[in-house]
Amino acid sequence: MRILCTFPGRYGDLLWALPAIRALSRRLDTPIDLTIAGEFANILPLLARQPYLGHVWADPDWALEPNQPTPPPRRARAMLERTHDQTFHLAYRGWPQRALPFETLDCLNRRTEGSPLRRAPLLADADLDLSTPWITVDGPGPPTELAVGFTEAWFELKLGLLVCLDPTLPPYLQLTPPGSRWTTEGAGRVSVLAADWLTHARTIRNADRFFGDCSALHVLACALGTPVLLMEPMDGRWNDIFYPYGKTGPRVTLITGGDGRPTFDARHCRDAIDTARSSAGAGVSP
């Protein structure tokens, strides 16, 4: 049986969707083929290493519309559906009602109805198995204690934060794609590693902790099982749908101030990193 999933989402949403796809693979005992939009093709080398995925490709004719769950081009969909026994189009029906991995699970369950798989038991929340990593990567990575991953949103604030914290941070690398503002404006002021998804995954896997904002790299850290500290200045990124592990640790901790609200204050960020390092040194499980 050949099963295909298509996913019309960006990097972070895609990484959150993979636990549901892995659960489907385990239930049907077969790797799942996956199609994504063409603009995200550079993540394919990482996806191709996941044992629960079969053939993975990016459709160059599939471009996402802003804030729209754009389906694959009609011609491509028709061809794919002819070559597969069942196809799951995993677009959200609107603003997600549950944390993103569970929202994708709901998409899978809805699309099981009326399909050749209708007699198969529907997937349950427990099938996601978020307790175990769903991204694996081989090969060595750069040695660093703290993998840092901040996007370019609020760039000046984030650069200023890292410059302020730089003398007090353990050995760290700011991860970024080549050509970003971190390489053009941040290099020489903070430790920057401009690399591809495989190198980022290896760096995060080797690090004791990930420090960054609510973004695809933080999801990658979750997928690799690396504990996460988040400094997120955008209140839209405080929504619970982005936090299937919660916000207070131990897997993911959203840094807050004395008022209990998320903060970008450098002192609170430094204290959160110091507390995490002390807990790890004392043998406290992350």
Folded structure, characterized:
By secondary structure, the chain is an alpha/beta fold. Helix content is 34%, strand content 15%. The chain has 9 helices and 10 strands. The chain has helices at residues 11-28, 44-47, 74-83, 100-112, 155-165, 181-186, 197-206, 216-224, 266-281, and strands spanning 3-7, 32-37, 53-59, 86-89, 146-149, 172-176, 192-194, 209-212, 228-230, 252-254. The strands form 2 sheets. It has a 6-stranded parallel sheet with strand order 7-6-5-8-9-10, with helices on both faces. Strands 3-2-1-4 form a 4-stranded parallel sheet, sandwiched between helices. The chain folds into 2 domains: 3-128, Rossmann fold (3-Layer(aba) Sandwich), CATH 3.40.50; 146-281, Glycogen Phosphorylase B (Rossmann fold, 3-Layer(aba) Sandwich), CATH 3.40.50.2000.
Q: Which fold name is given in CATH as the topology of the largest domain?
A: Rossmann fold
Query: Could you say which overall geometry the principal axes of the C-alpha atoms support?
Result: globular
Give the low-confidence spans.
none
Tell me, rounded to a whole number, the average pLDDT.
90
H-E string: EHEHEHEHEHEHEHEHEEH
How many beta strands in the DSSP annotation?
10
Oligomer: single chain
In CATH, what is the class of the largest domain?
Answer: Alpha Beta
| Biggest beta sheet attributes | 6 strands, parallel
Integer-rounded radius of gyration: 19 Å
